[in-house]
Each structure stands twice: as structure tokens, then as C-alpha cells.
Amino acid sequence: MDILTLTLLFAAGSFLLKTGEQRQRISLLGTHLAQFQIEKLMERLNDGYLRALDEPDAQRQQQIWSLHSATEEALAQQFARFAEAFSQAEGPTTWVNRNPLPYAHRWLPAWLAPGFDARALMRLHAQGIARVVANPQQLPVRDRARTLLAELYLMQHSCHWFCRSRSLASARLLARHKTSYEQVLQAVSPATRRAYQDLTGI
């Protein structure tokens, strides 16, 4: 069997394994998310915030901000519950490989299959969202809104990264929100950014 044939067989096998791994991840994440209304709350908050940020009248803008406090609290609480439920998933199924080979962490030594546990990543996002909603630093309303949107966009990026890949997650972020991954990472709270970089190695 020649080198080209072996290469094609390896590529085809890797593709099939990677596709199967991605399906398992999508199913795992979807099963947990289906118990909550996180995506619906996030869309409501995103639309409301963008409308407020575009509102030129200060009084009307303040009214729009105040309408969304209950949504903020509900979103923070639901994501915290999701992160707690997701933390009960089995470790091997939640590992995110930095090595592009499928199931690399299961058959390669740790130094050849670097990565991180998505359970810890979701807990990190839950803490970051809750922290911005609580606003202990008393950020001005516009700054707080922008920071919370960034926290939500980064969380969404992490979900897509877990299911597919970081590059695809970044492309979806740019296509959906017209914002780059790097911009979002700089816009989240400093505590979230430090914890995220420590965990993911970015």
C-alpha cells in the first residue's frame, strides 16, 4: 500500500472519528442546555442592550436598562444551575483537546494532548456572569452592559469551541455578533479574562 493511500485512509478515519466526537459533544451539551432557557434569555438581553446603547434619549435609555434587570438575574441563576448540572458529566467526555486529533486525550500522553476541562470553563463563565450582574464595582450602566454582553459572547464561544473547534467558534462569533474573539476577550471583566487564560492557555 503506497503512502498516498495510507494518508487518505488516515485522513478519512480521522474525519469520521472527529465527526463522531463532535456529535457526542453536541448531544451532551444540548441535553443539559435543554433544561434551561439560557439562549432565549441571552437573545432577549442582547437585543435589549443593543437597543438601549443606540437610544439617544437618556431618560428612555434608562427605562430600557431597568426593564432588563429581571432577565439579567434569571440568566445568571439559570447559567449557574446549568454549570452545576454540567459538572456532573463524566470527565473524559468534557475534555477539550488543544491537539486536533480526535480523542487525543484518550490515547496520547498528557504532554501531547494538552487541553482543559469544559466543566471548569462553564463554572468560570457562571462566576463571571454572576459577578457582572451583581456589579460589586458599581460600573456605570453602559460599561456594565458592554461587559456583560462580552461575558455572554465568550460563554457562547466556549460552547461552540467545546462542540466543534476554537476557529469555528471564532468565525461564528464574528458572523453572528460582528465582534472578534480577541475583542470579546479584552471586553470581559479582568477576573474572567485572567481565569480564562489560565485555564485554556490562550
Shape: globular
Number of domains: 1
Portion of residues within helices: over 70%
Amino-to-carboxy terminus distance: 41 Å
**Mean pLDDT score, rounded?**
85
Order of secondary-structure elements:
HHHHHEHEHHHHH
Count of alpha/pi helices: 11
Structure, explained:
This protein is mainly alpha-helical and 202 residues long. It has one domain (3-200). Helix content is 76%, strand content 3%. The protein is built from eleven helices and two strands, in the order H-H-H-H-H-E-H-E-H-H-H-H-H. The model is unreliable at 6-17 (pLDDT under 50).
Characteristic terms for this protein:
two-stranded antiparallel ribbon; mainly alpha; 202 residues; 76% helix
Please give the structural blueprint.
Blueprint: H1 3-33, H2 38-54, H3 58-67, H4 69-86, H5 91-94, E1 95-97, H6 104-107, E2 115-117, H7 118-134, H8 141-163, H9 166-177, H10 181-187, H11 190-200
Antiparallel strand pairs: 1-2
Helix pairs in contact: 2-3, 2-4, 2-8, 4-7, 7-8, 7-11, 8-9, 8-10
Short synopsis of the structure:
The chain is mainly alpha-helical.
